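Supplementary Note 3. Input sequence used for the single-chain structure prediction.
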Amino acid sequence: MADVTVLGAGAAGLAVAAQLTARGVDSVVLERGPGVASSWRGRYDRLRLHTIRGLSGLPGMPIPREYGRWVKKDDLVRYLEAYARRFALDVRTQTTVTSVKPGADGWSLRLADGSEHATRTLVVATGYLHTPVVPQWPGREEWTGTLLHSSRYRNAGPFAGKDVLVVGPGNSGAEIATDLAEGGAASVSLAIRTPPHIVRRETAGWPAQMNGLILGRLPERVFNTLAATMGRMEMPDLRPYGIDRPVTGLKTRLRTERYVPVQDVGIVRDVIAGRVRPVAAVRGFDATSVLLADGTSLRPDVVVAATGYGTGLGELFDDPSLFDETGVPHVHGGPAARPGLHFLGYDVTLGGMLRQIAIESRRVARAVTS
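The predicted structure, written as discrete structure tokens, is reproduced below.
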């Protein structure tokens, strides 16, 4: 029986395993993919961190300066590989856990090969961007075009000369729409249900992440008002181009929807230039068309659903009381959710995911070893 098992060899799993090592506790890290950082390996090619390098490193090892201020996806993967080597972490890849149940002296993990793995303490660090979610739109099965989740999108090459509809104006959707517009798609439309909050990635060298860190402690009403004012000052009015201003305040959406703003890496320019056309939300499909909420329809060749992810935790555990209605653990980021069971990497903040993971990894390691 293992003393401590960490589930997931992404940034959160590696960070907490390294923190446990620093406290003299060995752990086993189980990873379903072929290597560490599997989820990052599979993201679209042009992706960079939306947080600055200096505030994105994990405990005990900064991200190398040569990776630049805005770290590329592939460089982050290299960093995480080096991190696992630096702390000599016991990462066991190609190991898929299919269920987790309380055991006689801790927790019992059923593996895909039919074997069992027992552990006294389990730290779940599979993240909230785990399982792609595509809405069950009416008529989706009848449609004869190509539908793929954004997790399967890599670059614009396969879509050159095609009409593409991207669904969802979050960070992935907005950046994929820009990538398609720059990469030769015949037309690019962006379906919007709720108007996004859009911020500049940086202004005169000042990153948006710092605004989140400095202003994030303000009361919700004050923050919402300030964020709306800043948005009107730094971003052009996109209403003439089909994107309304948000109605709900940014911090309110963070609290109620786990929402973070869209960092502009080209979408504003492309909307104004007409290279990306905002359209109404998708309400369904028929054999040849995508039906929109305003009564209009489109006939794209391809639909890219940038419609988010679920945690996938409800499929692992048979105790639904551990999670809220979205699948996020009620208790995470430090204290035990059950004796010997910890979750980390499920918080969404304006200060950056990797920075928050670094904070939580220290908390969880302290809780496990106390």
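The chain has a mean pLDDT of 97. The radius of gyration is 21 Å.
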